[in-house]
User: What shape does this take?
Amino acid sequence: MKLLVTGGAGFIGSNYIRYVLSAHPDYHVLNLDKLTYAGNLENLSDMEGRSQYTFIKGDICDRTVLDGLDFDAIVHFAAESHVDRSILDAAPFLETNIAGTYNLLETARKRKCTFVHVSTDEVYGSTEDGFFTEQSPLQPNSPYAASKASSDMFVRAYVETYGLRAMITRCSNNYGQYQFPEKLIPLAIINALNNRPVPVYGDGMNVRDWIYVEDHCRAVDTVLHKGEAGAVYNIGSRNERPNIEVVRSLLRKVALHLGRNENDLMHLISYVRDRAGHDRRYAIDPSGIEQRLGWKPQMSFEEGILKTVDWYISNKQWWQRIISGEYIKYYDAQYGERLRK
Ligand code: NAD
Ligand code: DAU
Assistant: This one.
């Protein structure tokens, strides 16, 4: 099978490509990525030179790039992915997440190829109690979530109108190796290693439902092979945690590594102004994909977090190049500042 993976130089996309090429060594993967500030070819340096892997620098909004490529299925990760950035400027989110997805859908329609649309639990909005199921209403609250919900609706329309074999996955918060240090978990680890304040929004009691990135990648691959056209699959691993608890747990692990007193590192916690429209709680019910496709998460939160902290400790060069600005091309002053403080 020839797979077109979009956004493969980002966090989840790069982990997915590594997973696919180890699970299906006979596949060929085309990685189409624009290399925005979040795209980094170092995430896939171990794939370079492999005959089963080809990188193409290109924008999913550019139909001419897509027309020149040969593939059997699309797994679509490319997106503007950071909620805070969407609050500052939603324009690139509309462009890539909506118009870019439309372009890919048109390509898939013409070629009659399978399309896996990697979406997010954020399209459901926030829930005080209970869990998001695939039947929950879409109530996106951030411009990022609204752009993802909009692209989900286009995917649905292409299934209904043109009979496209497309599936939508809605996953909860991922963590693991190669996550860009604007997101909570890598930001907290890196700031703690650098003895810098760790910003916690609001009262720190917002709840996120965490999943190890490799479990997500395996789920996407399961959907590609076994998914039913038009189906939506929620992906999560029943790991709800208030943000402050996640941060404390990370600080404890970093303290252990540095041989420092835990309480010294707890002083780094810095409560800052809340995110506008900050969703209070996400909680995914993954029983649909478990029962229908036989997927199950394998990584516990404790073990996954330990692996992640270890990875950031062992791969300082990777993130130091990012936060020093050597690698950042489009990183704006506000975000650069926040990482450095
Ligand atoms: P990321 O920001 O780390 O990576 C996004 C990648 O897309 C980058 O390599 C970037 O260069 C590329 N890209 C952006 N615009 C592009 C364009 N116009 N053309 C081609 N490439 C482009 O994101 P991530 O965290 O890896 O998320 C990947 C996908 O998974 C996104 O669709 C996101 O909505 C979804 N998702 C993420 C999470 C999470 O917790 N990170 C959870 C659920 C779903
Ligand atoms: O739920 C899936 C979503 O998870 C994905 O669709 C998004 O692409 C991904 O970015 C992520 O969104 P979040 O906004 O939940 O992730 P983030 O890491 O930005 O924030 C996690 C929580 O931590 C959130 O409640 C905000 C809070 N936070 C975040 C940052 C960056 C802080 O308290 N301090 C911070 O510095």
